[in-house]
Amino acid sequence: MPIWPMNSTNYFNYPESNLATLLENVERLSKMGTWEMDFISQSIYWSEGVYRMMGYTPFEFEVTFENGLEIVFPEDRMAAIAHMNEALAGEKEYEIQKRLIKKNGEIIHVISKASVLRNEFGVPEKMIGVFQDISEFIITKEKLKKSKTTTQVLLEKLDGIFWEVDASTLEFKYISPQVELITGFTREEWMSEPDFWQNHIHPEDRDQAIYYCDLKTSQNLDHSFDYRFIRKDGRIIWLNDRVKVISENGKPKTLSGLMVDVTAEKNLSLALQDEISLKQNLIQHLPSSIFLLDEDQNFLLWNKKFEEWSECDPKEIHQMKPLDFFEEADRPQIQNAIIDLTISKRPVVLECHMKTKSGKRVPLLVSASRVIYKNQECILGVSQNISELVANKRALEESNKRYEILSKATNDAVWDFDVLSNQLVWAEGFNTLFGFDLDLVKPNLDFFIHRIHPEDRGRIFLKIQEFMKPNHPVSNWLEEYRFLKADGVYAFVVDKAAFIRDSEGRVIRVVGAMQDITERKQYETSLTNLNIKLERNVRELAISNMELEQFAFVASHDLQEPLRMISSFLMLLSSKYGDQLDEKAHRYINFARDGAKRMQQIILDLLELSRVGKPNEARVELNINSILEEVEANFKKLITEKQAIIARPILPNIQGYRTPVLQIFNNLIGNGLKYSKTGIPPKLTIQVKDADKEWVFSVKDEGIGIEKEYFDKIFVIFQRLHQGEEYPGTGIGLAIVKKAVDFLQGRIWVESEVGQGTVFYFTIPKA
Length: 767
Known about the structure:
Layout: H1 16-30, E1 32-38, E2 43-46, H2 48-54, H3 65-70, H4 74-88, E3 94-101, E4 107-118, E5 124-133, H5 135-145, H6 150-157, E6 161-166, E7 172-175, H7 178-183, H8 187-192, H9 196-199, H10 203-218, E8 223-230, E9 236-248, E10 251-261, H11 263-271, H12 275-285, E11 289-293, E12 299-302, H13 304-310, H14 314-318, H15 331-344, E13 348-355, E14 361-373, E15 376-385, H16 387-409, E16 413-418, E17 423-426, H17 429-432, H18 445-449, H19 454-467, E18 476-484, E19 490-501, E20 507-516, H20 518-577, H21 583-611, E21 620-623, H22 624-634, H23 636-642, E22 645-647, E23 653-656, H24 658-674, E24 683-690, E25 694-700, H25 733-743, E26 748-753, E27 757-765
Parallel strand pairs: 22-24
Antiparallel strand pairs: 1-2, 1-5, 3-4, 4-5, 6-7, 6-10, 8-9, 9-10, 11-12, 11-15, 13-14, 14-15, 16-17, 16-20, 18-19, 19-20, 21-23, 24-25, 25-27, 26-27
Keywords: Kinase, Phosphoprotein, Transferase
Pfam family, one: HATPase_c
Enzyme class: transferase
């Protein structure tokens, strides 16, 4: 219901002089003023509020169009003229945010709104408007931008709805939490329905709003427009939508913007068509609550905002006193303020909390002064809801507190450089890591730069200059350099920083964190030295391998020739002079021939060992069954003599090198046949298991077995567990197997029990 109904004594249906006086006091307390431009008389009128806002008296400043344009900030003049021309042409309502230059040179930010009064032919006769000083709000916003959590705080605390949609489908990708407060709908409701926004625009505005948005988007033009929106509770509100078009390859991709509830402003703008109605509606639709008290502290007048904040209806307000609306803790200062007003008659300003009907606490900034209304002294109060300012201040304090805690908790040295004020702040880490007494050292940018090692300083300074350029594409910085500590020793540091920019791309703040990586650098140096040593060892090993190859060549050619000669002459000696030699001589000849034979086998085994790991073949698909058949053919005579059994299933084909695999099976099967129990036919079992990334082979025998203490020694060259004629050998076979498995990048191990037999396991990777 209206605050002042037509039949109510509270309605502002009083002589215009009273309304003018009341409006003048409202203007003074709420930092606003009205103006009129008469196109018939070619005159311009300023209210006292405008003169006061600009710092002039009516006698100091002649209000003309030219003089009025002169006090507009130069960069805003063309926009102001363009907005006025569009309003006069009937293209749009006059509403603009601009900067004005006060008498003392101070620049203030204002919102100017106006309505055009036309005659019956549609010709403009008069333009009536209002200036609202929003400098404090602008300054607060700028301060808030310096906070580390600027973006999130703004999104959550903005007096509007920040949103982002797909340009082609108009489907919402993001919408800020304020949407529920302003429209009544939850974020989920907005996001779940593709045409949600279009479907809730007022039917009379829907087609025009969608057409205008589509047109400007197709032209890649940012735009702003007003329309009526139907809230969830059925109420109709006016929204001002300010849209940013983000294009990719010349085509609109994303739209982002801010929906602001301009219902109050819209209602005020419509009310400007009638001067008296303007003054009534101006009071009614201000974002501040207004009240008027008589000498006995009874409420005479109040506006809708007062009802809204207090949650009381007009009948209840009539029966209440000012102190009834405030908490017990605030009542003494409220009462003292009323006393001060009564005695000194000077205006008072105080912060307090209104207690609503439902028990909520609304933080207010109350300005009050003595005024004359209907020939009696009254108290006029104007209250501003400072919930947003209080929340922003709290958010800023929390941000600073988190910053301090983070600085103490981390091992980093955190720093913060405010470009606009040229102030550099070092956190506790500079004391912890680098030994600076922060009570004595007052750092600045020049001090910081000169702590950098001379060999690194030029590079870092050029990098800083590059990142400070406006609209530099990269905002995150990471550099390593040497930094001079308080004790005069240089530390290696890695410095990470974020360059924060304003809307025009200029750097306004840089926040960074330094880590001491001296130990890491020392480790890297030692690692480099170790790599150098390793490379030297590799070269020496290569030389050793080359010498081993040369030895193998000599062994395979030069050493075997004398052995063959010895064997031949011993055979000749035995055959030609055998009947002349006694049994002892024949035994010595056999010893010599057997030694030569074993020496020749050692040379052959060494030659085979030297060739392991140097296959002259490609990695191919191997038929393991075919390889085992070849091995069995090699041992055919021994298998027949010992009546041996070799059991194996059909084995899979694998990828690998043929020669090493053949060497492995040849030596393991040979060992299984050799170390069998006397008088018992040997039995060997060969199996394979698919173990995901590798094949696991096993060769099992039922021979004499191996004691556990020798499990690791048997793979070492020349390590034999049995001497003499019972189990002849060179001690090289298992060394060949181990080297072949290593070449194939596999593993080998043994399980055995003396008297029960042995199982050799080895793996071959699939890849």
